[in-house]
Design a protein that fits this description.
Blueprint: H1 2-25, E1 29-34, H2 42-57, E2 61-66, H3 69-78, E3 85-86, E4 89-90, H4 94-117, E5 122-126, E6 133-140, E7 143-154, H5 157-164, E8 168-172, E9 174-176, E10 182-185, H6 187-198, E11 202-207, E12 212-213, E13 222-223, E14 225-227, H7 228-237, H8 244-256, E15 261-266, H9 272-278, E16 285-288
Parallel strand pairs: 1-2, 1-11, 2-8, 5-8, 7-10, 11-15, 14-16
Antiparallel strand pairs: 3-4, 6-7, 9-10, 12-13, 15-16
Length: 298
């Protein structure tokens, strides 16, 4: 009986610890950038969706922005097309763009289906819907990489409308330019742009690393909280690994434009979103703007 009491008390403690966070973020917009292994592993996929559903049910306003690079590569391969890369970036020619849009929409509706299965109303849209994401052509070091877009304007009305009607929006990162040509958008960039336009309270990135390290080769040097100034210093000094720099730059930009807090999380940890948002310690790296207080209590 004693053992059972301890178990029950532990559960109660967890719920009580979550309470101030539930109060703090009630009715607030939280953008979840969903990618990496958590999109490939079926069990992790379900964990992320359950987390988003739970956030929705305790009164938050989550929005999922997803990528699908691995899935696009798979289908490009199935069709027998050779992927081309310039400076490490996939060249998106017209036939590749056609596949990318089909694949991303398929991924999108798969996520909607999982959310609906858990009893929450979800709507999947792309950046084309309601003119959400307007882009111009992105180049890499002056080289043409095809139909890859840089977001220059976000029209978030459709997202506010969906939230108001109590839907959980799921966004796939495709937009168009002035000529209404279709472009693929890096999902990190799309998530940052949407978070900025909506002044989201939180922006959470699911990645395949544990967070930001002081020294990438020393896994014990994980940083649980960073200010904008510290993040900028890290980028200038090249302390963080190469792949992290564009992510951090996007995070800093979002924080300077109205987002309160950005989280970089390891999507390979089950329920990483809940652990980071509802516990005092958190598990990834939180980057905060100057006005935010550090309210992780020891």
């Amino acid at each position: 009986m004693e053992h059972m009491d301890q178990e029950i008390m532990k559960k109660a403690e967890v719920l009580i610890e979550a309470l101030p966070y539930i109060q703090r973020f009630n009715r607030k917009v939280i953008i979840i950038k969903y990618g990496g292994s958590a999109m490939v592993d079926e069990e992790l996929k379900m964990d992320v969706i359950k987390d988003a559903v739970l956030l929705k049910l305790v009164g938050f306003k989550p929005i999922i922005v997803h990528g699908g690079g691995k899935e696009i590569s798979k289908w490009v391969g199935k069709i027998g097309m050779e992927p081309r890369f310039v400076n490490g970036l996939r060249v998106t020619d017209a036939p590749t763009m056609e596949i990318a849009e089909m694949v991303l929409n398929r991924v999108n509706k798969g996520l909607v289906q999982m959310i609906q299965q858990l009893g929450v109303k979800a709507v999947g849209i792309s950046g084309k819907d309601g003119g959400l994401l307007h882009v111009h052509k992105k180049t890499s070091g002056g080289e043409d990489i095809g139909y890859v877009g840089e977001v220059d304007q976000v029209e978030p009305k459709i997202l506010f409308d969906l939230l108001e009607k109590d839907f959980l929006p799921v966004v796939c990162p495709i937009g168009y330019d002035d000529r209404y040509d279709t472009y693929n958008i890096n999902a990190d960039d799309a998530a940052c742009a949407i978070a900025k336009a909506m002044h989201a309270e939180k922006l959470a990135f699911l990645t395949d690393i544990e967070g930001v390290y002081r020294d990438f080769n020393d896994k014990s040097s994980l940083i649980s909280e960073l200010t904008v100034d510290e993040a900028e210093e890290f980028m200038e000094k090249g302390i963080v690994g190469g792949g992290m720099i564009p992510k951090l730059a996007g995070c800093v930009d979002a924080l300077k434009n109205g987002v309160s807090r950005v989280h970089i999380l390891d999507g390979r940890i089950p329920h990483c979103v809940l652990l980071e948002i509802f516990t005092n310690k958190g598990i990834g790296t939180a980057i905060i703007n100057k006005t935010e207080t550090r309210y992780y209590h020891e």
